[in-house]
RNA sequence: GGGGGUGUAGCUCAGUUGGUUAGAGCGAUCGCCUGUCACGCGAUAGGUCGAGGGUUCGAGUCCCUUCACUCCCGCCA
């Protein structure tokens, strides 16, 4: 028999009554009655109530032990009388009378209580992460994470994918995020970069003829953190397939995600075949390329109406003349909402930096009630109703601005209004594909044309007939998955044709030599017989967040860094010895 | 780089209009308690009010600077 335990702390039941057992674990809680002591022993699996009274020679010593001390107990399983059964724990029908015990791991006074529902500052949680991780909620989140990853691995194997590792020390690439760099000792003055994603490697795996690849891949990007974005590192389910079209990727990923979300959450998936929304439509109808489809509100463009003579809303009309658009959100049957409901939203919009949201409610006989209602004729209202599907009793919120700004404010307003009207069902998952991303976009500041997403994406249409004169009209086989307004992954069918790649890079301002230099491995490989291929990379951390119903990525990450990319437990990053710097041929020049 | 929030005992927090000796719960220590499961009761210890400067007869409270944590913008396959 194992010298530490015969059972774990979630194992003993009525059928064990009478047997002598060994349990090991942490002292979760003591209830000391002076001559009788209840002690909850906890391990990864659960809690068992143990009991000792002053008749036992160990009583005094045990009574004094700190919570979170690790002990081993020798004892006997006994029945609990009906009125003392604890239905909250699975071992609640029995308890263990302690006959003997030893301390396996002493515990100092705790910097934070482990057994408590209190919330603690991130700082203390991260510094003592090993204590924090003992707590129920986060302990379960991390176990969930393990199970989800294991399930996904298994599914991918069943789908016929092969798992490969790709290098962690690789080369810096010019596109995308800031790289983490590692100085090379053997190559003075040169640096490795940690991969932002195994993008080029997975394509090279396809060129190597492996057909279907996946990896639970660590990705490193030196960018600032957000609640849903770890600084430094995160994980993707990276996958790539050869001889596929967009549809083939969609099929695999939809099946994988549906299986995973069904297995690990009780929430309903609204549409198991994910609806597809073009990038253009997403920006128009939702104001965002990551629409939350749980929210039924739709944004409509009603700019036309503001060119009518019988509309006298001059502020908007003037703006429209100078190139602004008007977009609106219709709320159904809100005629009886109090004035404060409307004013709140208007005030909120002004707070968000918009000029406010104009609104009116459509009344019987087709007239508009509200501060700006008088500016609209019956006919103009009928036009708006036809365009937006609004009915009598509905209200219309309008914003007028230049396109980018308008998308931003209408998107925020869509969220805000839905929240105020309680329209979002929190018990569902609403997935969608966002498709038809533009290949290029114009940088507002520099006025230069840049790749809008991945430079290795394949443009849509007949390759021979592509119009390189109008790059901004070019669409790519580039797609994102969005769930409940959270961007889960993005992927693309790749461009496997070197000549085409040179042309596209030329549009983004890279000449052939630059492409050859920066992407030598890739471009070379593609010229030795490359299969058409494509893939995608769902974010593991965000999938777990959705499944665990957490808003912060640190709640599903075992040892996260704080917002300033510091590990408070391990003291990383840290200074290094002069000797190490010397070996790496580095000198420090720190700005003050 | 910019904006918001927070910072008071080991932990979670309260602290009124600027006014006497800065409080509570949990935890710790000590004592009492044989059926609790957030056990109960009593006592004790524990404070650079994040730091620095200023205004004031007087600052936890007002002002300035600064630091830490966090949320957001920028940034981000």
Q: Show unreliable segments.
A: none
Order of strands across the main sheet: 6-9-10-24-23-22-19-12
Q: For the CA atoms, what is the radius of gyration?
A: 31 Å
Class by SSE composition: alpha+beta
Number of strands: 24
Treating each run of at least 4 consecutive H or I residues as one helix, how many helices? 16
Mean pLDDT across the residues is 93
Outline the biggest β-sheet: 8 strands, mixed
What is the strand content? 15-25%
Task: Report, as a whole number of angstroms, the end-to-end distance.
Answer: 62 Å
Assign a percent range to the helix content.
25-40%
Gross morphology: globular
Brief overview, please?
The chain is of the alpha+beta class and 592 residues long.
Structure description:
- The chain has 592 residues and is α+β, with helices and mostly antiparallel strands.
- It is built from 16 helices and 24 strands.
- It has helices at 59-64, 122-127, 129-132, 136-158, 199-207, 246-264, 279-286, 314-321, 339-351, 378-388, 403-420, 498-507, 512-518, 520-526, 540-548, 578-583; strands at residues 20-32, 36-42, 47-53, 70-79, 94-105, 162-163, 181-183, 191-193, 212-221, 232-242, 268-269, 276-278, 299-301, 325-331, 358-363, 367-369, 395-401, 428-429, 431-435, 440-442, 449-451, 478-483, 486-493, 533-538.
- The protein binds one RNA strand of 77 nucleotides through strand 1, strand 2, strand 3, helix 2 and strand 23.
């Amino acid at each position: 028999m194992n010298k530490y335990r015969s059972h774990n702390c979630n194992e003993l039941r009525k059928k064990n009554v009478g047997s002598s057992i060994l349990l090991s674990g942490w002292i979760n809680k003591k209830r000391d009655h002076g001559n009788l002591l209840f002690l909850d022993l906890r391990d990864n699996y659960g809690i068992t109530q143990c009991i000792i009274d002053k008749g036992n020679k160990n009583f005094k010593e045990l009574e004094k032990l700190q919570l979170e001390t690790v002990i081993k107990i020798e004892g006997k399983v006994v029945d609990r009388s009906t009125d003392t059964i604890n239905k909250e724990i699975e071992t609640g029908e029995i308890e263990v009378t302690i006959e003997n015990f030893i301390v396996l791991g002493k515990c100092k006074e705790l910097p934070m209580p482990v057994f408590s529902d209190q919330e603690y500052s991130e700082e203390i949680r991260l510094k003592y992460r090993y204590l924090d991780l003992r707590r129920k909620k986060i302990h379960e989140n991390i176990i969930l994470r393990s199970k989800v990853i294991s399930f996904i691995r298994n599914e991918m194997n069943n789908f016929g994918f092969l798992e490969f590792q790709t290098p962690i020390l690789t080369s810096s690439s010019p596109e995308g995020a800031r790289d983490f760099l590692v100085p090379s000792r053997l190559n003075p003055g040169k640096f490795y970069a940690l991969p932002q994603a195994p993008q080029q490697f997975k394509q090279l795996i396809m060129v190597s003829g492996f057909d279907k690849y996946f990896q639970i891949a660590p990705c490193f990007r030196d960018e600032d953190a957000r609640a849903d974005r770890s600084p430094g590192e995160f994980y993707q389910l990276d996958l790539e397939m050869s001889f596929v079209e967009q549809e083939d990727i969609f099929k695999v990923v939809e099946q994988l995600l549906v299986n995973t979300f069904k297995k690990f959450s009780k929430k309903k998936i609204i549409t198991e075949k994910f609806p597809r929304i073009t990038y253009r439509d997403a920006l128009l109808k939702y104001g965002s390329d990551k629409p939350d489809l749980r929210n039924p509100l739709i944004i409509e463009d009603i700019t036309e109406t503001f060119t009518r003579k019988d509309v006298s809303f001059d502020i908007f009309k003037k703006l429209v003349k100078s190139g602004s658009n008007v977009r609106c959100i219709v709320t159904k049957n809100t005629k009886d909402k109090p004035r404060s409901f409307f004013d709140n939203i208007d005030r909120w919009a002004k707070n968000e930096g918009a000029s406010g949201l104009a609104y009116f409610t459509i009344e019987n006989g087709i007239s508009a009630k509200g501060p700006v209602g008088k500016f609209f004729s019956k006919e103009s209202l009928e036009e708006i109703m036809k365009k937006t599907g609004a009915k009598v009793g509905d209200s219309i919120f309008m914003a007028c601005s230049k396109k980018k700004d308008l998308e931003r404010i209408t998107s925020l307003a869509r969220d805000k209004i839905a929240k105020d009207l309680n329209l979002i069902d929190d018990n569902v998952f609403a997935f969608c594909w966002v498709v038809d991303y533009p290949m290029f976009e114009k940088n507002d500041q520099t006025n230069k044309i840049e790749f809008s997403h991945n430079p290795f994406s394949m443009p849509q249409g007949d390759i021979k007939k592509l119009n390189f004169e109008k790059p901004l009209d070019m669409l790519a086989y580039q797609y994102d998955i969005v769930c409940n307004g959270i961007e889960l992954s993005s992927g693309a069918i790749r461009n496997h044709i070197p000549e085409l790649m040179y042309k596209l890079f030329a549009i983004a301002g890279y000449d052939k030599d630059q492409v050859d230099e920066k992407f030598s491995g890739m471009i070379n490989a593609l010229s030795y017989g490359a299969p058409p291929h494509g893939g995608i990379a769902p974010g593991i951390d965000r999938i777990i967040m959705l499944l665990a119903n957490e808003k912060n990525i640190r709640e599903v990450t075992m040892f996260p860094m704080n917002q300033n990319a510091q590990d408070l437990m391990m003291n990383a990053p840290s200074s290094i010895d002069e000797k190490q710097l010397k070996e790496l041929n580095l000198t420090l020049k720190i700005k003050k």
